[in-house]
Each structure stands twice: as C-alpha cells, then as structure tokens.
Amino acid sequence: MKLLQQLPASLLYKCVDGSEVYANEACFKLFGLGSAREAFLETLAFYDPESKHELTEDSHPFNKCAKEGTINLHVRITSTAKNLNCVVSGTVIYSENQQWIVLNLTSAQDNDISQLAFAKNSPLDNHLAFNRLLSKISSQLINLNSENLDCLIEKKLGAFGEFSGVDRCYIFQFYNDGNLMDNTHEWVAPGITPHKEELKGLSADDLPYFHQVIKSEQIFKVDDVEQLPEVATLEKQEFQREGIGAVLCVAIYLNEKLFGFIGCDIVGSAFSWREHDVRYLKLIGEIVSNTLAAMSNKQSLEQVSAELAAANKQLDHLANSDGLTGIANRRQFDNTLDSAIRRGIRDSDLLSLLFIDVDLFKQFNDTYGHSAGDEALKLVAKTLHECCRRFDDLAARYGGEEFAVILPQTDAKQAHYIAELIQLKLEELAIPFDGSPGNKILSVSIGIATQACTIALTSGQLVGMADKALYQAKAKGRNRIEVYQ
Ligand SMILES: Nc1nc2c(ncn2[C@@H]2O[C@H](COP(=O)(O)OP(=O)(O)OP(=O)(O)O)[C@@H](O)[C@H]2O)c(=O)[nH]1
C-alpha cells in the first residue's frame, strides 16, 4: 500500500479481514505526531459528536464502511496525540489481492478552535455564530432558580466547549481568602477524562505561579505546557498529569470581588490561542459571573427576608405572651376576646369566659417563697393551656395570680365541664400547700360567664360577669366554681 503512504490526503486504512490499522504520513502529521506512532494507532477511538457515545462494533467507521461500501461521517477522534473533530469519508478498494477499507480524514478544525458546523465559515460567520450562542446562553441563564443552576452552567460550558472544539471547559471557585479553590463545574469532550471530583480544596501553594498570574493579570494563557518556565514546575506537573497540552483561563469577578476563573484545555497537544479565543472565553465568563451574582443576590435577599420574618414572628410572640408562664398575656387576651365576640355575633354563637384565681396565693408565697410561687403559677398556666382543647380556645394570664380562659362556641354546661377539668388536673398535680382550703394542695376558684354574642355585648361586660362569679366563688369559701346568673 505504498501508494496510500505517499498520498497527501490523511488516511487510516486496514485490511477488511485484518485488525491492524495503518496511517499514512499525512495522517500522522494531521495529529501532530512525530514518534510513538504505534501507541497512537492502538488507542484511536471514534466518537459521535452529537450523542458523545463511542462508535464501536457496527457503528465503528471501519466496520460501517466494510458493510456499506462508502461512508461519510462527522466524528471526534481521540488518541494519544491531539483530539480532532473530523469529517471521515470511507471507501473500500482492492489492492495487493486484498480488500482494504480506507478512511480519509479531513480535520473540521484544521487545528482551529471552531466546531464542525463552523469549520468552513469565515471569521465573521464564526463571530456571528458565537454571538448567537452567547445570546442563547444568556437568555437561558436569566430565568433560572438555584436548584438547576449548577446543571445549567455545566450545559452552557458544554455548548461553548463544543462550539470552540476544546477538550475540557470548567469553572473554579476561590475561597478561604483566595487561598483555596474548588473545581465546581466541568464539561469534557467525548473520550476526555473528567477531573472535577478530584480537583477540590487545591491550595495556592499547589499552583503558586498560576495563582500569581491569574490574580495579577486576570488571564492565564499557555499555548504549550512543555514550554512553561521553570517557575511553573508545579503547574507543568499538574497539567501533564491531566494530559493537558494547552490551557486558557480568565478570572471571574462576582460583585467586584474575585470569584474564581473559567478555563478550557486542549488535551494531548499544544495549541496557539488567539485573541478571539480569549475574548470569547471572557464573555462566557462574564455571563456565568452575572448569573452567579444574580443568584447570590437573590439568595441573600431571600435569606434577609426569611430572617426578618423570623424576627417579626419572635417579636410578635414576645409582644403577646407572658414572660413568666409563656401563655398569652393580657394584650393577647384583650385582642382575642374582642375578635371572639365579633365572630360570635357573625355566627350567632354563645361565648364563655372563665376567670381563675389561685386561692390564698399571698399565703403560699409567704410560706414557700416567691420563687416557689412563680413555679406554681407556671404549673397552673400549663394546666390551663392543656385544658384548652379546641383551636380557638385561649388560656391567658390576666394579671398576678389571676388567669382567664376564652371558650368560643361554648355553652354554660361545656364551660362548667372545662372548669371542673381544670380543678381535677390541679388536684392531680397536687402542689403541696398546708394552708389551702382544698385538702392541703394548691387550689383555684373559678368564675364562669356565658353569653350569646350580640352587638350589645362588650368584652368589658363579659369580663365583669366572669369576675363577679369568681368573687362569689371566693366568698363562698374558695376552691369552687360559680356561674354568673
Ligand atoms: N410568686 C408570685 N406571686 C405573685 C405573682 N403575681 C402576683 N403574686 C402574688 O399573688 C398574691 C395575690 O394575693 P391576693 O390578691 O391577696 O390574693 P390571695 O392571697 O390569692 O387570696 P385570694 O385570692 O383571696 O384567695 C400577692 O401576694 C402577689 O404578690 C407572681 O408573678 N409571682
């Protein structure tokens, strides 16, 4: 197959029945290959640029050509040398008594960062295409929410990476005063190894030259990793570890603060970055940083308003609850009673009010001390609160050792039942009190007022009635329930 070797077209070929693949000089040249040609031929892989799946078995260009006679495909070829987007046209020829499959490779990039679709276009067409891509990316990034942000940014990196024909495109975020960085988003071309997961928590000391350059010049551009100066030995080692031949990074600012950088790599070969490559990457970096800034502002706003709502709730709670017992205070009692009457008028309902006063509490305080008195009041309040079973019921501290319970939609019988329940629960609690009128345990007297809600009824009247009933309970010997008649 000497003839094929001498042809200027870039060819890959193999015998129909054989497995060994050959390449001619033009093909090695296309991939920028000097030596290590065997390894190159052994590692050649073909990918579908659309689905990103490797072409194997029947879809492999050699097999497809053997089956169909001729083929014409867009493929991405990866190897130990540089990776290329190519148009592959294949044909079967007869030579040296054998059938040969010959694939003619035409680089869609011509070592130029433009995608297949733009390969034949002029720089102006390419620029217009990039502008279209840019406006598509920015319009899609405008109306996003934080849940799909990361996924969408990676998709956009992919759109840019495919457009540019680079092998990897990524974002790094600085933190800890710029001393550490994480690879937060990444897109890789088919066949390229991703590195995002392992590139976390990288210290400025790991890549000191890179950090110094990106922070002072906002751009880090290396056409050939092999040519990096001695001062960048650590960077060179890292890039070589990742198989990077050329790298381009530009800084990203968020709210005028250095946020991180966006970058792209060419794997396996050097590449001469041009002015427009830098410009395009910068523009994509700006869109991404604007998106991240908008999202971070939105998140801080949401956080501030959530904190404000929580503070208001807390304030509301403080303004309406009693400091000692934690149940509703007089303010909340007054408001709730007014609205219960209004609702009762609207629904033509009965409304009951209990007034509860701890018996001989002065003596309790004098005997057991003021703080024991406080503890007893807390237990009484808790008991009252637990006896309020309906959503609309409210137990409140009316003042001192006097409490009230508002019972909407409750007739006198039901109210009496609740009053008895309160006394029963307090008996069960059995707070010792030698001087008590009730069996040497702390007791309460309860006055009940039940009224039909009418426009004529005021909260002051209802309170007066319950208070009168309570006075009677006290007058009749305490530890008892009296109903206002
Ligand atoms: N420990 C404590 N005592 C309180 C609190 N608020 C009011 N008191 C006391 O409750 C007592 C109420 O006493 P009085 O109004 O004379 O009534 P009483 O001793 O309960 O007698 P009767 O109501 O007639 O059964 C007073 O000594 C108040 O100091 C409080 O928050 N903590």
From TrEMBL:
Record-annotated GGDEF domain positions: 349-485
UniProt cross-references to Pfam families, sorted A to Z: GAF, GGDEF
Protein origin, superkingdom: Bacteria
Reactions catalysed according to its record: 2 GTP = 3',3'-c-di-GMP + 2 diphosphate
Transmembrane annotation, as ranges: none
PROSITE patterns, sorted: GGDEF (PS50887)
EC code(s) of this entry: 2.7.7.65
Enzyme's top EC category: transferase
SUPFAM superfamilies listed in its UniProt record: GAF domain-like, Nucleotide cyclase
NCBIfam families listed in its UniProt record: GGDEF (TIGR00254)
Record-given protein name: diguanylate cyclase
Organism: Alteromonas ponticola
